[in-house]
Automatic annotation (TrEMBL):
Protein name: Cysteine--tRNA ligase
Cofactor(s) required, per the database record: Zn(2+)
Biological process (GO), any one: cysteinyl-tRNA aminoacylation
Residue span(s) of domain Cysteinyl-tRNA synthetase class Ia DALR: 371-437
Catalytic activity: tRNA(Cys) + L-cysteine + ATP = L-cysteinyl-tRNA(Cys) + AMP + diphosphate
Motif stretch ('KMSKS' region): 282-286
Organism: Chryseobacterium shigense
Record EC number: 6.1.1.16
Length: 488
């Protein structure tokens, strides 16, 4: 079984060959930390978390780098943002780095809630200004960039003149690009409207600014990813990922910067995750069509009829392939919840199944495992993998009903394979176990409060805690070693 993945650059599913056998360098564009991540952002990061987990499960050693965009940067159309950080700092009356810290912490909390593994390296754009200045200088020296009025631009036409192909990833024709673009920013500064900023002169109101050979300014957004991916993964690495919307211009520009600097294409496989939609429209902060992850989990929203556990949200996301659009809806979440509960019920039931080494089963464990791995190797096809897991679920319930049999070796194999796919690869969590842990912690807090009340002779309160818990079916038992509880 060979791993195949869809390469956006060639538009084909290709057999994956790492540069260094057994090792993978993977870079994924991280969040812009000037506001909370919405559920759409989470989907992209979750898609790559699944890919990261799958690669590790398939035996690769992965160095996973995901950056934090914490410097004011350029907007999608390549024009200078009128500094979203500045706007947000005014709105919240905070220092720019306070904004950055606040939303970086929020981002980490959200991803942890959905059980995403942290990347191996999480570099920040502001921590790599020196590298970005060096790259800009190199591009000027090599004739691919020019200074204009304190800013530095990448010369797209020069790049193409040298036989390189700007537009190769997004399949855009440079002539069309030139014809269809109006220069909204850098008017008079750029040679051509498609030229993009590597370094931008800071206006007097701009707070985030650094010294450079071209005066005070800040780096272009596209450059930060080239600087950080090159630093931690080398001039050429295996996989670069991000949301579909980053293909152009962001990733197109990264390819151009890499080739212009080092004479080689920086990335072997470009992977793009598709969008999360709501009401059939792309989830986005700017249109207001979005939901925050916490709102879905707490139920504080007008769109879903009830709250959903993060693991169910994760399961719902993985029921769609990472390259397909996923429209989140109440019905989709309810259906995922049902499926999730059935899957977890099967895991539980499997623990009480007794093996039978005499009878032969109709279910071929090896065939089933092969199908699961085929799905994973086929461009990380999570919905097909999940469908195969449900074949095992059916078998497990048949075992439980005594309609099927399994040998003791088979039972161990089924348990470990199922656990590996559910917990390690899909990254799901057992809600029941988690809830029990939470309940245990909560009861310990209540016992501690009751002890404090007794110590200060507030027997009315201590009795109230005991009686109210008893009414809920939780009995406190005082013993020599302290108080324990029994769930009735
Ligand atoms: P940003 O912080 O805006 O740079 O976005 C972070 C990541 O979220 C990028 O990889 C985007 O492609 C991705 N993203 C933005 N909107 C959506 C969406 N509606 N669905 C999935 N991914 C998205
Ligand atoms: Zn990037």
């Amino acid at each position: 079984m060979q791993l195949k993945l869809y390469n956006s650059l060639t538009g084909e599913k290709e057999i994956f060959k790492p540069i260094l056998e057994g090792n993978i360098g993977m870079y994924v564009c991280g969040p812009t930390v000037y506001s909370n991540v919405h559920l759409g952002n989470v989907r992209t990061f979750l898609s790559f978390d699944f890919i990261y987990r799958s690669l590790m499960h398939l035996g690769y050693k992965v160095r996973y780098v995901r950056n934090i965009t914490d410097a004011g940067h350029l907007t999608d159309d390549g024009n200078v943002d009128n500094d979203r950080f500045v706007k947000q700092t005014r709105l919240e009356k905070l220092e720019p780095m306070e904004i950055v810290q606040k939303y970086t912490v929020d981002f980490h909390k959200v991803l942890e809630m959905f059980n995403l593994l942290p990347p191996n390296i999480e570099p920040t754009a502001t921590g790599h200004i020196v590298e970005q200045i060096e790259l800009t200088q190199k591009l000027i020296e090599r004739g691919f960039a020019y200074e204009s009025n304190g800013s530095v631009y990448f010369d797209v036409l020069e790049y193409n003149k040298r036989g390189l192909n700007y537009g190769e990833l997004s399949k855009r024709n440079i002539e069309e690009l030139f014809a269809n673009t109006r220069d909204l920013d850098g008017q008079g500064e750029k040679k051509n409207p498609q030229d993009f900023a590597l370094w931008k002169k800071a206006s007097p109101v701009h707070i985030m600014r650094w010294n450079s050979p071209w005066g005070e300014g800040f780096p272009g957004w596209h450059l930060e990813c080239t600087a950080m991916s090159t630093k931690y993964l080398g001039e050429k690495f295996d996989i670069h990922g991000g949301g579909m919307d980053l293909k152009f211009p962001h990733h197109e520009c990264e390819i151009a910067q890499g080739k212009a600097c080092n004479d080689i294409a920086p990335v072997n496989y470009w992977m793009h995750a598709n969008m999360l939609t709501m009401n059939s429209q792309r989830m986005s902060k700017s249109t207001g069509n979005y939901i925050l992850p916490m709102q879905l989990v707490t139920g504080e929203n007008d769109f879903f009829e009830k709250p959903f556990h993060p693991s169910i949200v994760r399961f719902c996301f993985l029921q769609a392939h990472y390259r397909s659009v996923l429209d989140i809806s109440n019905d989709a979440m309810i259906a995922s919840e049902k499926g999730f509960i059935r899957l977890m019920e099967a895991v539980k039931v499997l623990n009480s199944v007794a093996p039978d080494n005499e009878k032969q089963s109709e279910f071929s464990l090896q065939e089933w495992k092969d199908k699961c791995y085929d799905a994973l190797n086929d461009d990380f096809n999570s919905p097909i993998l999940i469908a195969h897991l449900f074949e095992a679920v059916k078998y497990i319930f048949a075992l439980n009903d005594g309609k099927e049999t399994i040998s003791s070796a088979g039972l161990e194999d089924l348990k470990s394979t199922l656990n590996a796919f559910i917990y390690d690869v899909l990254g799901l969590q057992n809600i029941e176990e988690n809830n029990n842990e939470k309940l245990d912690q909560t009861l310990k807090v209540l016992i501690e409060l009751r002890n404090q009340a007794r110590k200060s002779k507030n027997f009315e309160l201590s009795d109230q805690i005991r009686d109210k818990l008893l009414a809920e079916g939780i009995e406190l038992k005082d013993g020599r070693d302290g108080t324990t509880y029994v769930l009735n």
